[in-house]
Hints:
- This is Cytochrome c domain-containing protein.
- This protein has helices spanning about 5-20, 35-50, 55-70, 80-100, 135-145, 150, 185-190, 215-230.
- By secondary structure, the chain is an all-alpha fold.
- It folds into two domains: about 5-100, no CATH class; about 120-230, Cytochrome c-like domain (Cytochrome Bc1 Complex, Chain D, domain 2, Orthogonal Bundle).
Amino acid sequence: MGGALVKPIILLVAVYLVLKFIVPNIPGSAPLPASLIFLYLMLVSSGIVIFATLSGESKDAFWGPIQRFMTGENIGGLQALRYGVLILFPLLVGWQTYGSTAQSDQPPAENRTIHPAPPGEYTGLSNPVAKTPENIMQGKGFYAAFCSPCHGGQFDGKGPAARGFNPPPANFSDPTTIAMLQESYLFWRIKKGGVGLPIEGMPWKSAMPRWEVELPDEWIWKIIMGEYDGAHQSPRTWE
């Protein structure tokens, strides 16, 4: 199809391999969400198209082989390849769509628990911070600064960065989330983040950072109070 197309294809493949396999292996990095990889590939593709259409000569060299392949003009012995691509492409899209939506009867690759339990030292902890209007308001301020980009300003899990993560950030206003949990559990999850979950907690693994690196315990307890108050929920108690 010409050298004008081979180089962009090689570049796209190289970018995908770097984002998919190299970046996650960098110390301190995490696997990139598929949506973010797709976004980077679209940006690279846009840059390739812009660069290839800077002049009339480069535009013809870039689009010419594509147009001739799609219309069947002057492709000689490549006619069978053309029909193969036009038939296989929709089949591959259909197969990918089916594979991503169909339920599987195969057992999970890892053992899973109904819900990951916190380590013993976090079980039954009570919030040592006084539940005063001032502390709740300060907790909401900390939440707005550190948590709302993902969990949303309305505590509904729809922050501006929420679309980039799978599983999505928790919706605190849903009565089946933090209302079913004790404050000690939230303290453990916020403090240790997604990397602090055991392997068997795979369904609930997330990209939430280990906030103990940046936030003191007192701030975390205040954030928890702010989350419950803002979501109009109450923590579960032993009683």
